[in-house]
Amino acid sequence: MASDQPQAQSKKVSIFRRFSRRDRGDTPPSPFLMNQGIRPPVQRAPRRLQRNRSHAPAPAPVGLLTPPPSPPEKSSFDSSEASTCYRQPARSHFTIPMHSSGSRERVVPNALLTKPFPGNPQITSWDIFLPPSQMYSLYLGHAPQEMEDKWFIYSEGPDQAGKLKVHFHRSWTGTKVAELFVVMDTKGEGAGKIVGIKWNGGKDTNWMSEEAAKYSIRTACQCQLNVHLEE
Questions:
Q1: Based on the structure, what is the number of domains in the chain?
Q2: CA-based angle 34:191:97, to the nearest 5?
Q3: Which of 177, 167, 181 is nearest to 200 (CA)?
Q4: Cis, bond preceding 158 (omega within 30 deg of 0)
Q5: Which domain CATH number covers 208?
Q6: Does the residue 61 lie in any domain?
Q7: Most exposed among 80, 112, 137, 148, judged by the fewest C-beta atoms under 10 Å?
Q8: So what's the pLDDT on residue 164?
Q9: Residue 179 falls within a domain, yes or no?
Q10: Which segments show compositional bias classed as Polar residues (predicted)?
Q11: Residues 124, 130, 131, CA angle at the centre, nearest 5°?
């Protein structure tokens, strides 16, 4: 605990100040410093304006020719919108156990059956800054809620040094595609930094290259976590 450390250490400046952005006016406080975690604003569906029943026209007398009642108005939601990258998880076919963290939940590693990396995975450095809100989304992970969800994402850590691993698996097969190495500031605002990536470059991923692996993880983070990895 920060309160148990000597006073001299409490004045040390976090190493994350070196790469943290200056414009933090809109940066939310670290979710790791809050007792109940982040409580995102509740998004309410827009309400339709309804006519006052007292002014509704009286029903036609029985026996007169009247057109059949109009069918209920269908939702304006287009099925093509379901193919957009980021969507809210819906109730459906997977039953995923999770740990509670306030109003949001962190995905547990054993929520689905997964496979480890095959022999000789590829590894390289990667340098991407993450603000606290996106860092927290990686920390929480993503459990598939629909058959269309292709990714199962969970994290392990952070340890006392702030090291966190984020694992990416295919939800249908459990194949491990990649793993991100992240260092985060658990004592400050909660910002973080991706420092490396390990990926499956074998037959299961069609001999995926470094460029393809980074693109795949960027897409997964954007679609499932609403996290944008920008170098």
A1: 1
A2: 60
A3: 177
A4: yes
A5: 3.30.530
A6: no
A7: 80
A8: 96
A9: yes
A10: 1-12
A11: 170
Asked whether residue 186 is domain-assigned, the answer is yes
CA–CA separation, 161 and 195 (whole Å) = 14
Other C-beta atoms closer than 10 Å to the C-beta of 106 total: 16
Return the structure tokens found at 212: 């393809």
**C-alpha to C-alpha distance for 9 and 17, rounded to whole angstroms:** 16
Chain segment 162-219, per-residue pLDDT in tens: 999 999 999 999 999 999 999 999 888 899 999 999 999 998 899 999 999 999 999 9
Decide if 140 contacts 164 (C-beta within 8 A). no
DSSP 177-205: EEEEEEEE-TTTT--EEEEEEEE--SGGG
Which residues form the domain of 193? Answer: 119-231
b/e 26-55 (16+ beta carbons within 10 angstroms → b): eeeebbbeeeebbeeeeeeeeeeeeeeeee
- Give CA–CA dist 129/69, Å, rounded: 58
Residue with structure tokens 């990686």? 138
Q: Is residue 139 part of a domain?
A: yes
**Amino acid 169: pLDDT:** 96
Phi-psi region of 223 (alpha: psi -120 to 50; beta: other; left: phi over 0): alpha
What gap in Å lies between CA 144 and CA 95, rounded to an integer? 9
Kind of pairing between the strands at 192-199 and 176-184: antiparallel
Q: How much is the pTM?
A: 0.58
